[in-house]
Design goal:
GO molecular function: kinase activity
Organism: Streptomyces ficellus
Structural class: alpha/beta
CATH architecture: 3-Layer(aba) Sandwich
Number of helices: 10
CATH topology: UDP-N-acetylmuramoyl-L-alanine:D-glutamate ligase
InterPro entries: Carboh/pur_kinase_PfkB_CS, Ketohexokinase-related, PfkB_dom, Ribokinase-like
CATH class: Alpha Beta
Keywords: Kinase, Transferase
Oligomer: single chain
Number of domains: 1
Radius of gyration: 20 Å
Protein name: Carbohydrate kinase family protein
Length: about 375
């Protein structure tokens, strides 16, 4: 059987692992996950010892480029083996062509509901990573509205991921919910400062809401992220609050179950996209039917692996990286046996043979073409 380059690349990232194999049936929708949003061209400068100083020229020791924005989440989902469909606008410039090719051919992501916009400049983000943090500068203009020539959006999918913006309900979320698509949502900083859950009307369609601790506490007017999660569980079936270096805490409103999993200690190089990777890991575990604590552990693991690399979509791990990590930590002296058992549920999924640790992700760049 002849496979496309995208399918070949996706198999390489996923190492042939299908986390949903046990639950797939002939009646399944074509896609596991649908998402939509803005794709940026991300240019990442690395090897900086400190932040640039005003009035000086700073040289970086490394640079990479990759699709960013919503592409971070799409890539993370695809690399974990989920059949991912993305609807987005792409400019007809070289940046847009590069991002389209990297996602469709490089990651095997379906772009049949995406479009190329003539004369539209692709949004760009320049990110500078140093001291475990990053500074970003972005430029872009909103894409013109759809002309009605694209396929219906959204398609049937097991799940969809939405980024909720206060005061901006998304019609596609309602449409997806009508199709029995399971909606997972995160959110960003509320620039209005109101932090009013009523300003997130799409929350009523969501199965799970995954804000960070600061966002959760502001929305619930609480001073403790765990209390915030319990308060959010009164609004959504499943509330997951990420706690940064402390891990994550979740409350299942239907069963009353709670779960908390500590974070994995790693040397963080760049946190860009870690939140997207966490959500992708949690969606994967949920669709696979894993217990709540296992879902949190897997999401935290994939996020931890991502911050050890530079960039957003560049750093998203696949199953080969997960397997390499698991093989590595089992051979490390001084490991807490109980902590290792927390991740033993992965053993039946991991591919063989296992490649050596550390396993580096490729750093593509727009400056070089792909050979035939």
């Amino acid at each position: 059987m002849i496979t496309s380059r995208g399918e070949q690349q996706q198999r390489q990232h996923t190492a042939g692992v299908d986390p949903l194999e046990a639950v797939r049936t002939a009646a399944d929708p074509e896609y596991d996950v649908f998402l939509t949003g803005t794709v940026f061209l991300d240019i990442i400068f690395t090897g900086l010892d400190s932040a640039p100083v005003r009035g000086t020229e700073t040289w970086a020791r490394g640079m990479g480029s990759s699709p960013g924005g919503v592409a971070n989440m799409a890539t993370a989902l695809a690399r974990l083996g989920l059949r991912t469909s993305l609807a987005a606008a792409f400019g007809d410039d070289h940046y847009g062509e590069y991002c389209w090719d990297a996602l469709e051919q490089g990651e095997g992501i379906d772009l049949s509901r995406s479009r190329t916009v003539p004369g539209w400049h692709s949004p760009v983000t320049v990110s500078m990573a140093y001291e475990g943090e990053r500074t970003m500068v972005s430029h872009g203009h909103e894409a013109p509205p759809l002309d009605g020539s694209l396929p219906a959006c959204p398609p049937r999918a097991r799940a969809a991921v939405a980024s909720l913006t206060p005061g901006r309900p998304e019609e596609w979320v309602t449409d997806a919910a009508r199709q029995a698509t399971r909606i997972f949502a995160d959110t960003g900083w509320d620039e209005s400062g109101r932090w009013d859950l009523a300003a997130l009307p799409d929350l009523e369609h969501c199965e799970a809401f995954l804000p960070n601790a600061d966002e959760a506490m502001r929305y619930t007017r609480t001073s403790c992220p765990r209390a915030a999660a319990r308060a959010l569980a009164e609004k959504v079936p499943l509330a997951v609050v990420t706690l940064g270096a402390e891990g994550a805490y979740a409350v299942d409103a239907a069963t009353g179950e709670t779960a908390e999993v500590p974070a994995i200690e790693v040397a963080a190089l760049d946190p860009t996209g870690a939140g997207d990777v966490f959500v992708a890991g949690f969606v994967t575990g949920t669709l696979a039917g894993w217990p709540l604590a296992d879902r949190l552990a897997f999401a935290g693991l994939t996020a931890a692996l991502s911050v050890q690399e530079f960039g957003g979509s560049l750093s998203a791990p696949g199953w080969a990286e997960v397997a390499a990590w698991w093989n590595h930590v089992q051979g490390c002296s001084g490991q807490d046996p109980a902590a290792l058992r927390r991740y033993s549920f992965l053993e039946s999924l991991l591919p063989t043979p296992i490649r050596p640790w550390p396993l580096r992700r490729a750093v593509p760049t727009i400056g070089f073409g792909r050979s035939a």
